[in-house]
Design a protein that fits this description.
Blueprint (H helix, E strand, L loop, with lengths): L8 H11 L1 H7 L3 H8 L3 H17 L1 H17 L2 H18 L1 H9 L1 H11 L3 E2 H14 L6 E4 L4 E2 L3 E4 L2 E2 L5 H20 L10 H7 L4 H23 L1 H9 L11 H7 L6 H11 L16 H27 L14 E5 L7 E5 L2 E3 L3 H14 L37 E7 L4 E13 L7 H8 L1 H15 L2 E7 L4 E2 L1 H12 L9 E6 L4 E8 L7 H20 L2 E9 L5 E7 L7 H8 L9 H13 L5 E8 L11 H17 L2 E7 L8 H5 L4 E3 L6 H13 L1
Parallel strand pairs: 2-4, 10-16, 14-15, 14-17, 17-18, 18-19
Antiparallel strand pairs: 1-5, 3-4, 6-7, 7-8, 9-10, 11-13, 12-13, 15-16
Helix pairs in contact: 1-3, 2-5, 3-5, 4-5, 4-6, 5-6, 5-7, 6-7, 9-10, 11-12, 12-13, 12-15, 16-17, 19-21, 19-26, 21-26, 23-24
């Protein structure tokens, strides 16, 4: 607003008196704040007024303190930095309350200095998605990125600093982030923490008089070995690491061990030998990308993962045997074994009675993860779970899961989008997963009888869809002539142009690679007809999807306030559609409110980890987002829309099936004009949902 004159102190004071009436009834005056704001340019004044009004909607007292500090902040920082200062203080208010938030506003000088440094910094929030793709390309198991300092890995997660500003430019700091992540990945890939002895690092270091020194020495030696591994396997990446570190010559006593550690056949056993030999020697300065070692975290994560993956593989093998032929004559039972794709390949394969078996993608990923930890798959892992052989942890009762503090073990924390701030409320929602209580009622059988004719038609339709061919037009070779292309080619020939090559049709069998997450509204408003229709729809869908073979999961959602968001497990991706799942569908009951954003974020996080070419999130709901703590109207709609945008960025296609007659007022904004379907009569829902799914996936 370069042409507008700044507002006078009197004009600003009048505006503050009206905007901050609740706070000023105690303070009696806004004169000092108005005088300080009158010294700003008009665009700065309008910026300050905007944020004072936004904060006043949360807490007028907080807004009053902002009014007194805003001029100081805007004189020290550009507007984008001042906005970050205000949002940080609002995050403090959300988590800790008014007085810590006021203190955060008062630390304006420290924040301004930090922002100046941040101009060259790179944050984990901005590079995290790129690093995840980078790590995925390196292969191995999927590693989650989390905020933590100093940097380390527990072999399941990489903990990285929230920001890095150690180098003079953003480009160098981005390269350093990549190098830190790559070196932590190397620890998981090149055997720093062998799975057969998860506590080796901790116990080995404790055997020395100074365990902390021993751990640092081991880390320095292991870094040499890992650098050599990266140099052989990923020379381009290794050149980037070398560019970040001028390595001085090794001390004389270290040189023989450096040569051994850099040898192609060196394992972590050589590092432990060097630790014993060089204990007491000075440790070189750490390389900027090597992070730290946390042996206790590794031991815990490794032990949990190894036990989980053993039972998960045994359970998966049990499911693979279900419905197969009995063992060959003279053999008491069918036997699994592990092999390799090729003699020089690390990709494990599954054998059944000596014949290679086409294992599902999730089983292959499980076998690969076990091999990464243990070097191979032990024979005892390949014994299918029998009666009593597989005992998953008993889920907590739904009525007990919220006892105690809301942040007890097992809760998930999620951000929530505040459209007024145009910023996330950090770790604002607390979510738990709960199993639906199964119900022993004949609901599924009654539904199949009620819709017997429809179920038969659905089976035939989905059987045809399973065997459907895709027709490729204008091919150089094919099964038959493409008459459209031939007519066009003849026309081109008559016009003096060359006859095109693509004159044939080719039939190609469709290879379905789809994973679908069904998100079912279990809010209180679904009571009665709607709940029955949802459950009937799920029964018909499951019957059809079992024919089609698409991977699918079903979860319900509800909750009450941000501190009690709930996801109800009905069917996981790796579960068969059996009597337990049918009983859970029968047991779906209306609960509380409809806080959709956090449910979408949680379920999309699960769907993101499924290996599939096409990923769908299908929501079945009777109305708009709603919760009694203010999550309604525009706030709830905008948070849900933001969660759906996040899903889209992760390659997940979201679609909503609703029976809300007012849906046209808000669903196009949330989902997009073509990404929802309105069923105007709840009794028609079971008739429509399978047809909608068929159109979505064909």
């Amino acid at each position: 607003m370069p042409d507008l004159q700044p507002l006078t102190a009197s004009e600003i004071e009048d505006w503050l008196d009206e905007e901050l009436d609740a706070a000023l009834s105690l303070r009696r005056t806004s004169h000092a704040a108005a005088v300080s704001l009158s010294s700003l340019a008009r665009d700065q004044q309008e910026f300050a007024r905007h944020w004072i009004a936004v904060v006043a909607k949360t807490n007028p007292e907080f807004a009053f303190h902002l009014a007194n500090r805003a001029a100081d902040g805007l004189k020290r920082m550009a507007q984008n930095d001042a906005e970050a200062w205000i949002i940080q203080a609002m995050d403090v208010y959300d988590k800790m309350g008014l007085y810590p938030a006021i203190a955060a506003l008062g630390a304006v000088e420290a924040f301004a200095s930090a922002r100046a440094e941040r101009a060259r910094a790179v944050t984990l929030e901005e590079v995290g998605p790129v690093l995840e793709l980078f790590l995925q390309a390196l292969s191995g198991r999927r590693l989650r990125l989390e905020n933590g300092e100093p940097a380390f890995t527990d072999t399941t997660r990489l903990f990285l600093p929230a920001s890095i500003a150690w180098r003079p430019t953003r480009e160098e700091n981005l390269r350093l982030y990549k190098a830190v992540a790559a070196h932590l990945w190397a620890q998981t890939w090149f055997g720093t923490f062998p799975g057969h002895n998860p506590e080796r690092l901790v116990t080995s270091c404790r055997a020395f008089p100074d365990p902390d020194y021993a751990r640092e020495l081991f880390h320095a030696l292991e870094t040499i070995r890992l650098d050599a591994c990266l140099a052989r396997e990923l020379p381009g990446l290794y050149r980037e690491l070398r560019a970040l570190h001028d390595r001085p010559p090794a001390a004389r006593s270290w040189r023989p061990w450096v040569a051994r550690l850099e040898a192609a056949d060196a394992t972590v056993d050589v590092t432990y030998e060097a630790l014993t030999a060089l204990y007491g020697e000075p440790i070189p300065e750490p390389r900027p990308y090597q992070g730290t070692l946390n042996g206790d975290a590794v031991a815990t994560a490794l032990a949990e993962r190894i036990e989980h993956e053993r039972t998960a593989l045994q359970d998966a093998l049990k499911k693979l045997l279900a419905g197969r032929m009995p063992p060959p004559p003279g053999q008491d039972k069918r036997r699994f074994a592990a092999g390799k794709e090729q003699s020089d390949s690390s990709e494990p394969t599954l054998l059944l009675d000596g014949q290679q078996l086409a294992a599902p993608p999730d089983v292959r990923a499980l076998m690969k993860s076990i091999t990464q930890d243990l070097g191979d798959i032990p024979e005892e892992y390949l014994v299918p779970a029998g009666d009593g052989g597989y005992a998953p942890a008993s889920p907590k009762k739904a009525e007990d899961v919220w006892k105690g503090t809301y942040h007890e073990e097992g809760a998930f924390l999620y951000n929530e989008w505040d459209y007024k701030r145009q910023h996330y409320r950090k770790e604002w929602c607390v979510l738990r997963e709960i199993d639906v209580h199964p119900a022993e009622e004949p609901f599924v059988a009654d539904t199949l009888r009620k819709y017997a004719g429809l179920a038969t038609r659905l089976r035939k339709t989905f059987e045809a869809l399973r065997g459907e061919n895709a027709v490729q037009r204008r091919q150089k070779h094919g099964d038959e002539v493409d008459f459209d292309a031939l007519i066009q080619g003849f026309s081109d020939l008559r016009s003096g142009r060359e006859l095109p090559d693509g004159l044939f049709l080719r039939n190609r069998r469709l290879a379905r690679n789809i994973a679908v997450m069904f998100m079912v509204d279990m809010s209180g408003s679904t009571k009665g007809w709607i709940n029955d229709a949802e459950r009937e729809s799920l029964v018909l869908l499951c019957e059809a999807l079992e024919i089609l073979g698409d991977r699918y999961a079903i979860y319900g959602f509800s909750g009450i306030t941000r501190k009690r968001c709930e996801i109800y497990r009905v069917k996981r991706f790796d579960e068969p559609y059996d009597k337990d799942v049918r009983a859970r569908i029968t047991g779906i009951r209306p609960q509380d409110y409809t806080r959709m954003g956090v449910a979408i974020r949680h379920l999309c996080g699960m769907l993101k980890n499924v290996e599939a070419r096409t990923k769908l999130l299908v929501t079945l709901s009777d109305g708009k987002p709603d919760d009694y703590d203010g999550y309604r109207g525009e706030y709830g709609i905008e948070d849900t829309r933001q969660a759906l945008l996040e899903a889209k960025r992760d390659g997940i296609h979201a679609f909503c099936i609703t029976i809300d007659t007012d849906a046209r007022d808000y669903l196009p904004h949330m989902y997009g004009a073509a990404n929802y379907a309105l069923v105007d009569d709840v009794r028609k829902l079971p008739l429509k949902i399978s047809d909608i799914y068929r159109h979505l996936t064909s």
